[in-house]
Amino acid sequence: MASKQVPKQVEQAPPGLRHIAVVMDGNGRWAQRRLLPRTAGHKYGVDALKSVVRGCIAQGVPFLTVFAFSSENWNRPADEVSALMDLFVQALRRETRELAAQGVRLRFVGERSAFDTPMRELMQQAEDLSAANTRLVLNVAINYGGRWDLVQAMQALQASGEPISEESLAQHLCLADVPAPDLLIRTGGERRISNFLLWQIAYTEFYFTDILWPDFDEKSLALAMADYAQRERRFGTVHPQAPGLRVA
Ligand code: FPP
């Protein structure tokens, strides 16, 4: 964890916390510790995600973006990739209606052409069914990579003929219409970004925890938010009370 003190849980999201991004890591280790196949960890990971969705809704966070499958995850053993694809299909079949009923808008970001037709149809159906919901936007990054996102944005920008600027490039990224993440949580003990939202995290606060993803829940989320509430975000400026800034 980033802070030395253990913060108290919060009942409501700290002011200004609008977008949480999550690297859901540790499913495989969670399963292996229980002598279960790694894929069992991914299955329990779906429950952890549902718990975090409930937490975001309860605490009034309007945007949640989770890293479900990276561009590099295709390099995992074929049976794990295939089990993950089956799990995505099952999870979408089982959970879409319930999520939509909770007011969640589902969106998928990433290169979809790599998925088979049933999976692509399920993603489209989930987006269509939940399109009018406004309580929580859940962006599922799937076959996503931050580098891929930047390249596809640059290609779109080049094709449009617009001049290159930070603003014009940002408008072609997958999450162009979503505020940049305020808080990025990574579970599972690793302290890296792993090609997640490279552009969007320029001023994001990071929270790393050793908790393995299937054990992460609403309470863990509340602790992460409480830790975030203690941060001072300066966006490249100085603290308002910094010496030399006082005018009186
Ligand atoms: C990383 O843990 C986790 C994944 C690659 C998959 C995450 C997917 C889910 C939680 C399911 C979400 C489902 C939907 C429909 C969005 P790991 O396998 O790298 O764990 P390890 O580091 O312990 O090996």
TrEMBL record:
PROSITE patterns: UPP_SYNTHASE. Its EC number is 2.5.1.31. One of its GO terms (cellular component) is cytosol. CDD domains: Cis_IPPS (cd00475). Keywords: Transferase. It is an enzyme of class 2 (transferase). One of its GO terms (molecular function) is magnesium ion binding. One of its GO terms (biological process) is polyprenol biosynthetic process. InterPro entries: UPP_synth-like (IPR001441), UPP_synth-like_CS (IPR018520), UPP_synth-like_sf (IPR036424). Its cofactor is Mg(2+). HAMAP family: ISPT. This is Undecaprenyl pyrophosphate synthetase (UPP synthetase) (Di-trans,poly-cis-decaprenylcistransferase) (Undecaprenyl diphosphate synthase) (UDS). It comes from mine drainage metagenome.
